[in-house]
């Protein structure tokens, strides 16, 4: 059985834009434009505190914080909170673990 051959139609040639060999220079920003951008940044809303900062704040409490407290504050899963605690240890912060009467482990930062 012979193979059938498709007749190939020629494809239209593509027109591509070529960059010029000369480097283009960026237009200089005017003084008015630069002052507008700096004012826009200064009147922006304050940056929200990071989740890591929220964890550190909870750990600085006298009784520290349980994993459940840290999960509520960050919205993270348990393994992510534990990884954040490991990251704090690697940064040189000393964490203390204590169990309360109910058997719940509380983490807190050791007093420096």
Order of helices and strands: HHEHHEE
Instruction: Bin the strand percentage.
Output: 5-15%
Report Rg: 30 Å
Please state the structural category. alpha+beta
CATH architecture of the domain at 51-109: Orthogonal Bundle
CATH class type of the domain at 51-109: Mainly Alpha
Got a strand count? Answer: 3
Bulk shape: elongated
Distance between the termini: 88 Å
The total count of helices amounts to 4
CATH topology of the domain at 51-109: Arc Repressor Mutant, subunit A
Q: What name goes with the CATH superfamily of the domain at 51-109? A: Winged helix-like DNA-binding domain superfamily/Winged helix DNA-binding domain
Largest sheet: 3 strands, antiparallel
The whole-number mean of residue pLDDT values reads 81
Helix content: 25-40%
Low-pLDDT residue spans: none
- Major sheet: arrangement of strands: 1-3-2
């Amino acid at each position: 059985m012979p193979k059938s051959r498709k007749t190939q139609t020629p494809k239209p040639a593509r027109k591509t834009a070529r960059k010029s060999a000369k480097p283009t220079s960026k237009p200089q920003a005017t003084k008015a434009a630069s002052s507008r951008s700096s004012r826009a940044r200064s009147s922006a809303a304050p940056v929200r505190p990071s989740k890591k900062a929220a964890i550190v704040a909870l750990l600085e409490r006298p009784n520290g914080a349980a994993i459940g407290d840290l999960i509520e504050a960050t919205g993270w899963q348990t393994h992510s909170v534990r990884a954040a605690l490991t990251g704090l240890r690697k940064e040189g912060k000393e964490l203390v673990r204590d169990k309360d009467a109910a058997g719940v482990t509380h983490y807190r930062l050791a007093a420096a």
